[in-house]
């Protein structure tokens, strides 16, 4: 069962193998499209997080906190955006989850408006108003 939440490992194991594949693919894409990097925007995100503690199967169960990575010429990169909630027991949510500090719609909303120039965010995210976090600059002219 490739990619299972059991026996995930850390620097070795299924998780490390999957992350290495992702890294290699993103690196190849960046290399191949470098001349057009200003027009490139790649979003990598997980639809769920993982618990902090290892479970009985040497993996991790689904959790709250997650991650998102952006790659492209207009990304305000070089550092982590957001807040680090901490790993102390009193900083965890529920039964051992990282706290969610950024709503993914804030990031995606910024991308939709600033990179795709779509200002109809109420149609894209009904009932939610994204708070931009300054993760990208406007799209460069083609």
Structural summary, described in words:
- With 142 residues, this protein is an alpha+beta fold.
- It has a domain at 14-102.
- Helices cover 25% and strands 10% of the residues.
- The chain has 3 helices and 4 strands.
- The chain has a two-stranded antiparallel sheet with strand order 1-4. The chain has a two-stranded antiparallel ribbon with strand order 2-3.
- The mean pLDDT is 87.
Number of helices: 3
Strand content: 5-15%
Give the end-to-end Cα distance, rounded to a whole number of Å: 44 Å
Order of helices and strands: HEEEEHH
Task: Give short descriptive properties of this protein.
142 residues, two-stranded antiparallel sheet, 4 strands, 10% strand
Structure at a glance:
The protein is of the alpha+beta class and 142 residues long. It has a domain at 14-102. It is built from three helices and four strands.
Question: Strands, helices and their partners?
Answer:
Blueprint: H1 14-33, E1 41-45, E2 49-50, E3 62-63, E4 68-72, H2 104-114, H3 121-124
